[in-house]
C-alpha cells in the first residue's frame, strides 16, 4: 500500500537538527536518572514484598499509612493503584513474609472487608540476579544484532543500527525516569520488543539503500540515502501508525498492571521510527565522510561491490 509517492523530503539534510534534538533528549533523560539516583526498579529487581488491597469504599493513601505506622510497619511505600478503592503497599528489600503478615493483619483490623487481590515477595538475592540477567539479555541481543547486520550488510551498517538502538533505549529509559515509572520484568520485555521493532524499521531502510547503491547513478552518497528513506516512508508511516494505535489502546484501557509496559512501547515506537530516519541513516553519511579519501568513482564501485557480495 502506497499513499506517499514521489516524496522528496531532505531527511539527511536535517541531520544536524536531528542530532541536536536527540542529544537534548538524551541529556534530559540522563539528568533525570542522575537526579533520581538511577532507574526506579520494581521489587522484581530490588527484592521486597508487595500487596494490592481492594477496599469496600475509596480509601486514601494517608489513612493506610497511618494504620501501618500505628502497627509498627515502617518504610512502606503506599500509592493509589488505578481505582480510588485500591491501594498498593510495597516494602523494599525485606526478603521475607513477616512484614507482609504485619501489613495484612493491620489492614484486616482496620478494614475487615478488604480484599487481598495480589501478593508478591522477591528476595534481595533473586532480585539482583534478575537485574543482572536482564542487563545481559539486552547486551547479548545488541551483540547478536551487530553480528547479523555485519554479515547481512556491512560493518558500518551494523554500527549505525546499534547506535540507533542504544539511542532508542536510552531515551525511553529517560522518559521512564521523568515519568517516575518503575522498571519491572515486563518493562524489560517491552525494551527488548522496542529493540526488535526499531531494528526491523531500520533494516527496511537499509535494504532500500543497498538496492539503490547497486544501481549505477550520478547521485552522490547523501542523495542516494535520502532517496532511499523517501521510498521507504510510506511503509514506515503505515507500520508505525498501526502499531501506535494498538499500544495507545493498551496505555489508555489496559489498566495499571499494563500501564508501564504500554508506556514503554508507546515511547519506544515513536523514538524507534524517528531513529530509523534521522539517526541510523545520517550515521551512514557521517561514516562515509570519515572514510579515507579516494577517487569518487572508485569509492562508489567498491561500495557497490561490497554490498552486492
Fold and architecture overview:
With 309 residues, the chain is of the alpha+beta class. The protein has ten helices and four strands; from the N terminus they run H-H-E-H-E-E-H-E-H-H-H-H-H-H. The chain has a four-stranded antiparallel β-sheet. Helix 8 (221-253) runs antiparallel to helix 9. It starts with 14 loop residues before the first helix and ends with a helix.
Q: How are the SSEs ordered, and which strands pair?
A:
Elements: H1 15-35, H2 43-46, E1 48-54, H3 61-70, E2 76-81, E3 83-92, H4 98-110, E4 115-122, H5 124-152, H6 155-179, H7 185-214, H8 221-253, H9 255-289, H10 296-308
Antiparallel strand pairs: 1-3, 1-4, 2-3
**Percent strand:** 5-15%
Strand order of the largest sheet: 2-3-1-4
Count, helices = 10
Helix content: 55-70%
Assigned CATH architecture of the largest domain: Up-down Bundle
Instruction: Give the CA-based shape.
Output: elongated
What is the average per-residue confidence, as pLDDT, rounded to a whole number?
82
CATH topology of the largest domain: the name is Multidrug efflux transporter AcrB transmembrane fold
Features:
single chain; 309 residues; alpha+beta; Multidrug efflux transporter AcrB transmembrane fold; Alpha-Beta Plaits; 2 domains; four-stranded antiparallel beta sheet; 10 helices; elongated
Task: Give a summary of the structure in a few sentences.
This protein is α+β, with helices and mostly antiparallel strands. Helices cover about 70% and strands about 10% of the residues.
